[in-house]
Amino acid sequence: MTLSLGVDTGGTYTDAVLIRDESHVIASAKALTTRHDLAEGIGAAIAAVMAQAGAAPQDVTLASLSTTLATNALVEGQGGRAALVLIGFGEADLDRHGLREALDGDPVLVLAGGHDHAGAEAAALDEAALAGWLEAHLAGVSGFAVAGKFATRNPAHEQRVAEIIRAGSGRPVSASHHLSSRLNGPKRALTALLNARLIGMIDSLIGRAEQKLTELGITAPLMVVRGDGALISSGLARARPIETILSGPAASIVGARWLTGAKDALVSDIGGTTTDVALLRDGRPAIDPDGARVGPYRTMVEAVAMRTFGLGGDSEVHARTEGLQGGVGLGPRRVVPVSLIARDAPDVVHKALDEQLRRVVPGEYDGRFVRALRSVNRDGLGPREAAILARLGDGVLPLGDVLRARIDAGPLRRLIERGLVQMSGVTPSDASHVLGTLQSWDGMAADKALRLFARKRTGAGTPLAPDAPGLAGMIVAELTRQTGLALLESALAGEETDFGQNPADLARHVLMEKGLGGHRGLIRLETGLAIPVIGLGASAPVYYPAVATRLGCEMELPRHAGVANAIGAVVGRITIRKSGIVTSPSEGVYRVHLEGGPEDFRDEAGALGRMEAMLTGQARDEALAAGAQDLRVIATHDIKRAQAEARTVFIEGNVTVEASGRPRIAG
Prior knowledge:
about 675 residues, Rossmann fold, Translation Initiation Factor IF3, six-stranded mixed β-sheet, about 40% helix
């Protein structure tokens, strides 16, 4: 018997499954994700699934991990402090593709240098300016990103800057040409910056996961799911963590296909932090040609065409007090449910909630708590951030005890963004505890927190809701509404018909809303989904039947839907893709742009052959190093030509090589 172990670490739960002979799920288990040390949750889930199956460690011949960690970090604005070096660009380039917003005050150097479109040096590299800047900006920086102008045509300046930074700092460096072979320097710079920001987080996760496997006696090598659903080695994932954005969602699509055999469907996976929606066409998820979008960022990472919404079971509930009736909103930030944090610190939480309920006048911070995460790197903190962490200590505190002055709000926000502090507040998970559809944690604490929240006043001066169940119903109804909008937007984006408007605007159009209600007047309106939805995630059976009713569609909730990500983590294939470009800087010259610099050929076939041979070798070597067997290698050429004076002229050729195979099982 051979067993494959799949693990998915999400924002709230860590899931584990065991699949026998790549065909049958024999056991599945969940454990709470332990944000202070993810390995604890991973180890607990693995131990539980092994015990459930009665399996021995040596029976596991393949282990694979999918994670929403990188996705959630980008959605929530978390990650390490990273510095960016832009070579050959101008200050104005920082305003393209959201690069300045992504920096959010982190150090950046616009450095002289760079190349032209043919790969020739456009300006000398200013190494002296780099050395001076580097010395002044080392404090608190966990990683560096480097992006050079036309670095995909000649990476020499990126390579030299990376060499200087590594020698002077010892910190990891993300070079943009390693992450994408395409043009668009500012977008590559954004991708490299996000990669640098994630390196410490993903490296820690993978390292601790491998350590936990060893402690449990499992010697199978660890694979990681990439954003397109393929498997890569843990070493490659550590070097290029940006490729794991949408790892968890991509695994869920692979898992949904494996569980249902569906060919055409929307796959909607609700987690603690996000809802991820993708379209299956003819049994295959589409790859986003423009690069993965996560939250506000459009990267150059090849990934499934996934729409990610900041909506989940642990989304923060906001009061909408404007207007006579008021209401609630959800997300995009994830917070720890009060019912969950009360399980960890029952005395502190219940005492605070009881005191707040006894007050006649509601407090601004009622029902909200904070705690510090001790295992996260604390380099580069300012004095106010350090003071707040000292105030927090090792326990859970009511938010009002920590925010002693308005000026503390900014430092606390920065601590949350860096992942050093967790906020707790009312969530849909708490609402479900009050309604009795979820009973995992402390339902009494959830009831108290919702009673406090319900006391907030609307514009008419009346309470937001009459009681905790009334507020819980409002929260779940809002989750149903927002989930329906997410599915409609995703379906409209996937339509082959161009409606001439943004899918998000169309999903929210008044005519769409009226059509969902089956409007009958002088005009008959009917709208909804004409394609089935596969609902995934532990809370999908709780929330998604109402979504199906709202959208008038078929909803499939497969067995093992709650661990689909973990299933998808282990049933995929190892796939390595390499791309390169051949240009023609002048008539009769074919330039091959290689890692070691450009090479010129006098004939098109020779240039394309050189590029294909190099890429094939790289792809095969990486796939074999990742543990692939029975390799299949496919090369494609995309040649662009133009007509000039009755002649066909070669413009450029893009060569892509893909090497794929199933993971080799441990002997």
